[in-house]
TrEMBL record:
Belongs to the pterin-4-alpha-carbinolamine dehydratase family. It catalyses: (4aS,6R)-4a-hydroxy-L-erythro-5,6,7,8-tetrahydrobiopterin = (6R)-L-erythro-6,7-dihydrobiopterin + H2O. InterPro entries: PCD_sf, Pterin-4-alpha-carb_dehyd, Pterin_deHydtase. The lineage of its organism: Bacteria, Pseudomonadati, Thermodesulfobacteriota, Desulfobacteria, Desulfobacterales. Its EC number is 4.2.1.96. Keywords: Lyase. This is Putative pterin-4-alpha-carbinolamine dehydratase.
Length: 113
């Protein structure tokens, strides 16, 4: 199977299918630091990233924002002093899509770089 970081986000059709259990079980091992959470009734991928100060956390928010615009797939970003909570889900299908797993993997790459 291709690495999630090689996947380019695809536009989603409103009401299209969410990721199957098999897909989730195939993708999730590549993003071990992320949790699958219920965000206001919608399944989402969530991870909290920690930084030395507010400035570094803000810089990371901007990096993820750039990535989101490049792929035209957008996260929820919660910025606090030294902490950024990132949530990926696909609003159009009210659930998880391969796009979300790919963006989570790319968010990890940004954090590690
Ligand atoms: C038209 C365009 O594809 C949509 O508005 C995109 C933009 N970014 C998006 N981001 C996310 N996370 N979910 C979406 O459904 C979505 N839709």
């Amino acid at each position: 199977m291709k690495y999630l970081t090689e996947h380019k986000c695809v536009p989603c059709e409103k009401g299209g299918p969410v990721a199957t259990i098999d897909e989730i079980n195939a993708y999730k091992p590549q993003i071990p630091e992320w949790d699958i959470v219920d965000n206001k009734g919608i399944q989402s991928l969530m991870r909290v990233f920690h930084f030395k100060n507010f400035k570094q956390a803000l810089a990371f928010v901007n990096q993820v924002g750039e990535l989101a615009e490049t792929e035209y797939h957008h996260p929820t970003l919660i910025l606090d002093w030294g902490r950024v909570e990132v949530l990926w889900t696909t609003h159009k299908i009210k659930g998880l899509h391969k796009n979300d797993f790919s963006m989570a993997a790319k968010t990890d790459t940004l954090f590690e770089s």
